[in-house]
Amino acid sequence: MVRCTAPVRGHNSASAAQNCPACRGRYGGSSYSTSYSSYNYGSTSKGIGGGSNNTSGKSSNRSSKPRWSTSTSSAVYTNSQIIALTPVRNKVEQITVTKPDLRDVFLCHAWDDRKESAKDLHDFLEDLGVSVWFSEKDVLLGAPLLRAIDKGLAASKVGIVLVTPSFLERLTNEGIADKELSVLLATDRLIPIVHRTTYDKLREVSPLLASRSGLDTNEDSLKEVAVKLSELVTVYD
Questions:
Q1: CB–CB of 119/170 below 8 Å?
Q2: How big is the CA angle at 219 (ends 216 and 225), to the nearest 5 degrees?
């Protein structure tokens, strides 16, 4: 009895079916129902690594925890976030050894955000035990603002930039935020936090800042961002 040359998965082309002694003439033209191309290798709901295949891109790049995240942490990171934050974490670990008394975070923000998103991020961080330099509470009435900012930057482990529509507008007009940013960009401890806007819009105003990878509230809520920042700057003995 003549046997099919592809008994399990079928033929990978019409010509292969025609050349098979058992199937020759059975498949007319180019139609063949049991081909390799139609074989189901696994559920289409799974992506590489078994993750969820989310077409929005929000969670399709989820990864394991970074080395500084505790085993009990609920934070979920993407591969790109881990890559972006690892060099900053390395610097934080070095600074913590040599200058343990520094503030954890310097928060750079637009003036218009001081009572809204910047205040929210500040409060989330402080609730998590992170010490934050925040102009609303750290600049005394009548004190020279730029000098206070310089001191705050020098006394903090990490600088975070809250990029909002108001921040982009301030950068366009070259306000105080632009002066803070110039100093922050000179360091290798800068983390942009894009909130209610996009990296594309940031790139139109500040290509240099947009070239720095950070966190994005299109992927995580502002509270989740605070959790990741808390883990990033917390160094255990």
A1: no
A2: 60
CA distances from 54 to 44, 45, 49, 79 (A): 11, 8, 13, 15
Tell me the CA end-to-end span of the chain in Å, nearest whole number: 74
Under a CB-based contact definition with an 8 Å cutoff, are residues 131 and 103 in contact? Answer: yes
Q: What angle do CA 74, 131, 170 make, to 5 degrees?
A: 95
Q: Is the dihedral of CA 90, 91, 94, 100 positive or negative?
A: negative
Q: What residue ranges of the chain are covered by domains with CATH 3.40.50.10140?
A: 79-233
Structure tokens at 198: 């996009």
Element (H, E) at 104: strand 103-108
Q: Which two tokens stand for residue 116?
A: 């809204």
**Architecture of the structural domain at 79-233:** 3-Layer(aba) Sandwich (3.40)
Tokens (6 digits) for 139: 């600049």
Residue 209: which residues within 8 A CB-CB, separation 6 or more? 161, 163, 181, 185, 192, 202
Task: Record the tokens describing residue 209, joined without a space.
Answer: 């800042």
Greater model confidence, 128 or 25 = 128
Lowest mean pLDDT among 136-145, 172-181, 199-208: 172-181
Tell me the average pLDDT of the chain: 78
Rounded Cα distance between 66 and 84, Å, is 11
Residue whose pair of structure tokens reads 């990171």 in the numeric block: 77
